[in-house]
Amino acid sequence: MLIAVLLAAVAAFTLWRGDSAPSAAPGSAELIDARGRAVTIDSPVDHLAIDDARYLVALGLLHPDPVSLLVAWPHDVNRLGEDTYRQFLQKSPELAELTTIASSAGEFNVETLLGAAPEVALLSLESGVTEAQVQQLEAAGIRVVFVDFFVKPFENLEPSLRILGRLTGREQQAESFIVFRADRMARIEQAVADLPEEYRPTVFVEAHAGMGADCCNSPGRGNIGDYLTFVGGHNIGSDAIQQSFGKLNLEYVISRDPDVYIATGGPHLEKAGGLVLGPGYDQAQSKAALTKVAGRRGISQLTAVREGRTHGFSHHLINSPLDIIAIEAFAKWIHPDRFGDLDPEATLAEINERFLAVPYQGTYWVDLQ
Predict the structure, then answer these.
(1) Which residues neighbour 130 within 8 Å (Cβ) at sequence distance 6 or greater?
(2) pTM
(3) What are the tens digits of pLDDT across the range 281-315?
């Protein structure tokens, strides 16, 4: 625990140099963003633009009214989920009227961002923003800061939260959540530190399960795959997919016959008849959807399905600053002997109570046993 606290302090110091830094004016901070760029910001900032709706969740961990900080966002409601979006709207109706800018999943548009005139543009590491475009924005007085919660979460999630804390003047809240997450991760890491490779169960994660007739969307190396490795599992997708995500053919999945099957889903799969989880769904509905997904040709014959090691998890909670919930659930499913007493539900309840401006309510994971 002492080591974790010391490391956090070192990381905080190397991430930013506060008001006493000789290169920064009073009331400003020099940040090192996810692209390794040094950016000097006058803080706190209350005119932000974000290129990913999920940053509302990250800001909501630190600030009681994250929408009040925004002047523009991409209106990519699918990344939040319709029900979560409605919860944000109920709290802050002005969200619907904010200027629309390009999402990190699409082509970057300088003009719309210039028109919104934020103090700071908070952009995703995976966005296709060029250095020339960054220079164009900064020449217009818009500071650009890159953050990352999704590409390399083990490297970038904590520094990105510290950036948000410094930008918004909520450093203490950022550190509180970082310590909360780090404490739980340290326990899991210690429990599997001496685990030999032969005791790492093979795991197949089918992302967006039931989205279409073909199989199978899967994490490769990085992102969700890193979570599986961290909790003592072996992601079969990483043996065939070099990038973060890709596709596995059904024959490969059957030949590997994984020990554990985890499907991800959400409200966006309801029309396709896939796995539904999240606000608006109860355990019975999500369990019925998982039963249908796991009963498909090929998937149903996997040992993991036949022997009851079949689980469903919300994709919105995986690609999220709240990834500790997924980490705990995965650990419990992959090593029930070591993590039988983990309680992801209690962890989410504490996050709702202590941190989130808009609590997560609904069914976010389910099992078939």
Answers:
(1) 108
(2) 0.88
(3) 999 999 999 999 999 999 999 999 999 999 999 98
d(CA 21, CA 5): 23
The reported pLDDT for the residue numbered 22 is: 34
Q: Using an 8 Å Cβ cutoff, are 94 and 67 in contact? A: yes
To 10 degrees, the CA torsion angle through 244, 203, 366, 362? -20
The domain limits of the chain are 2-169, 195-368
CATH class, domain 195-368, is: alpha beta
Question: Which of the following CATH numbers is that of domain 2-169: 3.40.50.1980, 3.40.50.300, 1.10.10.10, 3.40.50.1110?
Answer: 3.40.50.1980
Is the dihedral angle over the CA atoms 223, 128, 171, 67 positive or is it negative? negative
* Dist. CA 179–CA 163, nearest whole Å: 15
Look at residue 49 and give its three-state secondary structure.
strand
**Of 235, 201, 206, 202, nearest to 221 (Cα)?**
235
Token code pair at residue 237: 């997708």
